[in-house]
């Protein structure tokens, strides 16, 4: 048996297993080993490239809307004979979100910064205010006064339109080389990565477009110049790009950025459970449908799951070489839709909002029941 996380949030905040190497935040600081957002309205914007336009045409149209984000601050460690922190600087990327001067970037790019500067493609520099950040999705919104007129808002793509194999380009400032374009394809969808605060970001886009330190916060764009994601991490044993990069999906960007722009605190759905995959054979052995299930291996007391009466496994048993959690609830559906893996359950809860009521189909001691849970807000 392998629980997908020791984190007690089930939603976009329940983790998954790490792969080979380590996911690293691409501004140069490593993120935790990889393990895992609702909808709102995005600012109005028009597509910036014609359908079927090549990378060069897309770049020509969008480059003015991609910015370099530089930060200055002081480290917390002691420095020099008189103590105190040492000056630190960082570089990342971002893009113009709306006509009011808002810029989207990664939370880890501006984390701990005392000063933030945005540099546009035409060389214009502006001081930026950090409007808000969300460590659980590694997103941040900046505000710049008097941006250049050439910096138009980029359009966010409909996440349902993104397909594996479609061409994409990334634009940013890898190693401080502003305005760098790299190209590739969407390698996979619905990956999970670990956010700076240890939560899990779901629905992540994997790409083979070269992404390196400094690309953090920059856009990953489709062939029409629409933002399909915000470049955030890579998987690498060397710290450099090996063709496995990850971008936070446009649906998450749309939801989180709109809340931050409105001055709201971003609220994430929360159940309060630890979960583990159970195979079809394992589910059948415990009296559930032979389709696979999700075992509850931990339930937080006084969480939404705990208040609804959901029960965690009390032990385990081995069937056909598989160690199966036993004595607790197996979740087989959410809102009538089957879930056969921890990722399915994460995605289903991530699509809800705090306060929503969801019906979980569970099997306990071979008996089917429906448990209604009121989704909570992820603790900070």
> Could you give the distance between the termini?
29 Å
Major beta sheet summary: 6 strands, antiparallel, barrel
In which range does the helix fraction lie?
A: 10-25%
Overall domain count = 2
Secondary structure class reads mainly beta
Strands in their spatial order, largest beta sheet: 8-9-10-13-12-11
Shape: elongated
Low-pLDDT stretches: 1-44, 46-52
What does this entry look like structurally?
The chain has two domains: 18-266, Thrombin, subunit H; 269-377, Pdz3 Domain (Roll), CATH 2.30.42.10. The model is unreliable at 1-44 and 46-52 (pLDDT under 50). It has helices at 55-62, 107-110, 250-261, 280-285, 304-307, 342-350; strands at residues 22-25, 66-74, 87-96, 102-105, 115-119, 125-134, 139-144, 167-172, 180-194, 200-207, 219-221, 227-236, 245-249, 269-270, 273-278, 293-299, 315-319, 322-326, 330-334, 337-338, 357-364, 367-374, 376-377. The protein is mainly beta and 380 residues long. Strand 19 and strand 20 (337-338) form a beta hairpin. The radius of gyration is 22 Å and the shape is elongated.
